Amino acid sequence: LCQHSTVGPIETTLCDYETIESVNGELYNTLSELVRTPFFKYFQVDLYRECPYWQENGFCMNRECGITTVDESEIPERWRAAALSKIELPPLEERVPLPGCYYRDSDFCFLDDMTEGEYVDLTLVPERYTGYSGPSAHRVWKSIYEENCFGLSELNLLTGRSPAQITLPDTLTDVLREPIEGEDADGECLEKRVYYKIISGLHASISTHICMEYLNQTTGEMGPNLECFVTRVASHPERLQYIYFNTVLLLRAVSRIGPYLRDYDYCSLATSTPHDHILAKDQEEVKTHATLSKVIDIAEHVGRFDERVLFRGENANILKEEFKAHFRNVSRIMDCVGCDKCRLWGKVQTTGLATALKILFEMDETALDPHKNQNLLQRSEVVALINTLHRFSESLQFVESFRDMWKETGESD
Ligand code: FAD
């Protein structure tokens, strides 16, 4: 039987939610180890593209907004621009004929050109309060919701709601079907709702990180801010629910791509390295494989999400194209974010979510075969997928900490 447990406004439900909560500690620790390995910590990104939608001049002048990129000489040779630009596809006769046209040219996001951009060590750039806010930040969120959200957003952006105790659905597949707040029950199709939930969940996860490491204006120190979390996330229980939703979506994608990831070449050093380096390389690769394997095991255990209910029926293909076009626009809107750190994590996470969507909705079993289709995903997609899952898993850990803080305030009695 599914029950609801409520800690003040920080509500949760049992069943699927409880399953995720029961494994999240282990998932989070394993992912934290994984994202520190060389393969997963370097992300190549072009942070300085022009905002294609408007003249962005609200750049954040706060010291916290800036990032330092890594010199290319620190990056394993095979990932450098010159080496990357040389990556070749298998000969035509060895390629698997794939349904549709998703091979490389059909994505849910625009991947940066891998011959440009710089490497960033993600472990050195925590996602936290940067001071980026005001009209520039609002404009970006607004345009993500409004221009890409099938007109649903205004409801959520304009209604300041009280911490109502909304009954949560029992399973995460039910979340797929739930109408969103303020929506006319027959108003929107499933796919459009799902789109909104993904974006709102991403927004809630970013907010959770900001509130966990918030700047205390009096002491000048960073630390958790319970009020921030309650206002931005917990007083809107559905936002909390969408963090779970995105976590399960990502886990399901990792589980589906499991065999491919288990077979992936995580070798990070050049082939011409001396003997002791080859030894180090082997050990490092073994460790990366073992850690990733643990993550895949967990994903296979809990990544329950029935993607088959989406993109079916009469207008399935039109809807899917529409969905993709919207999601692609979001990745371009990231170039309009006026704070380097926020833009970086925005890009990592939209790429990670887009990769999950691609895995769930664009690939059939033949395509997923690691032997037949070795170049299925680009390195940046694999790195983004795992780092995005780590972000969401971290948010769930933070939610636990906020629950404890709430209990300590005594307001839960
Ligand atoms: P905002 O978070 O800006 O929200 C605007 C409005 O959207 C709210 O008033 C509300 O009505 C609605 N809303 C809020 N959350 C949700 C939700 N989950 N679902 C649906 N509707 C919602 N700032 C940092 O300090 N560090 C970062 O790393 C960072 N990363 C960012 C990444 C991106 C891509 C963007 C666009 C912004 C980022 N920001 C970051 C800015 C941050 O998200 C906020 O915009 C800023 O802190 C101001 O917050 P706010 O309280 O005014 O509301």
TrEMBL record:
Transmembrane feature ranges: none
Molecular function GO terms recorded: FAD binding; protein-disulfide reductase activity; thiol oxidase activity
Keywords: Disulfide bond, Electron transport, Endoplasmic reticulum, FAD, Flavoprotein, Glycoprotein, Membrane, Oxidoreductase, Redox-active center, Signal, Transport
Active site positions, chain numbering: C339 (nucleophile), C342
Positions contributing to FAD binding: R128, T130, W141, S200, H203, R232
Topology within the bilayer: Peripheral membrane protein
Required cofactor names: FAD
Any single biological process term in GO: protein folding in endoplasmic reticulum
Gene Ontology cellular-component annotations: endoplasmic reticulum membrane
Top-level lineage group: Eukaryota
Compartments where found: Endoplasmic reticulum membrane
Disulfide bonds: C60-C65, C339-C342
Quaternary structure (record): May function both as a monomer and a homodimer.
Record-stated family: Belongs to the EROs family.
Protein name: Endoplasmic oxidoreductin-1
Organism, scientific name: Rhizopogon vinicolor AM-OR11-026
Residue window of the full protein shown: 51 to 463 of 561
